[in-house]
Write a structure and sequence with these properties.
6 helices, alpha+beta, 15% strand, elongated
Length: 179
């Protein structure tokens, strides 16, 4: 079945919308991956709330024009796929780098993160950073710590007073029983 011009135009518009609606994109070479491996990769990428798409190089280069992802245009040669995430680029980088360790056929070509082109080695550095949920948890812990300390200090005075009163009562009952 031949690919019609309207199909290509639809694909081009889909790619343009995808690049406009995201902050990060990673270009990978998937040559040598078997179908079950690609299926597993897609599943893992979906789990990271990202998208993975095999693209035609000429259409991808056209879709990149006028976007912050334009530096990626030179990497669209050969078998190329693009993975992009809107919310958490760290999660996507973690998925791709860990998958590349198990399937060496997957090669990270280049990436753009928030308008800045980064090299494949920097993608693995990005993957070593904590993800958004982890950062939120640390931030909430830091916000909560002073309040917890205030509660402990304020509750210490009545607790200590009760302890003194209990000890005084015990001393008085012991002194009254022995006399």
């Amino acid at each position: 079945m031949a690919v019609t011009r309207t199909t290509k135009e639809e694909e081009l518009h889909d790619l343009e919308r995808a690049f406009r609606g995201t902050e990060s994109a990673i270009v990978v070479d998937y040559k040598g991956l078997k179908v079950p491996e690609v299926t597993e990769l897609r599943r893992q990428v979906r789990g990271a709330k990202a998208k993975y798409k095999v693209v035609k190089n000429t259409l991808a280069r056209r879709a990149l024009k006028g976007t912050p992802f334009e530096p990626l245009a030179e990497h669209f040669v050969g078998t190329t796929a693009v993975a992009y995430a809107g919310d958490d680029p760290v999660a996507l980088a973690k998925v791709l780098t860990t998958f590349a360790k198990t399937a060496p056929a997957l090669q990270i070509k280049a990436a753009v993160l928030q308008g800045r082109a980064i090299k494949p080695a920097e993608v693995s550095d990005l993957a070593s950073l904590p993800g958004k949920p982890e950062l939120y948890a640390k931030f909430l812990f830091l916000l909560q710590a002073p309040m917890v300390q205030i509660v402990r200090v304020l509750s210490a005075v009545p607790r200590d007073l009760m302890s003194v009163l209990v000890q005084a009562e015990q001393k008085r009952t012991e002194g009254g029983a022995s006399a």
